[in-house]
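Hi, here's the filled form for the chain we discussed.

Project: internal
Contact: R.S.
Residues: 101
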Amino acid sequence: MHGCGLLRKTAALASILLTMVATAGCWDAIDIDRRAFVYVMGLDSVDSEQGDRIQVSLMIPVQGGEGGVGGAGAAGGGEKTRARVQVVVESGANVEEAVEK
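And the returned structure, exactly as it came back:
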């Protein structure tokens, strides 16, 4: 009887440990610096040799951009700077196909 209780405890502990390892949430995490946040998305209909296609234009901020509006104090004055962005244009049969390119 003593061996049966030890076997159950060992199996339960192994099950708990396996569950903890399998459900850890960081194994597929994408670092925030590797993500692209879209500022603007434009959709256009394009006639091409492959038939009607959709052209997708995306405006994405560039890493390390010093963009934004400057200013300090109550007066707000300050120097305005332009945000650094990249415009990506692709076409596809649908929006998903164009964005995946």
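Let me know if anything looks off before we file it.
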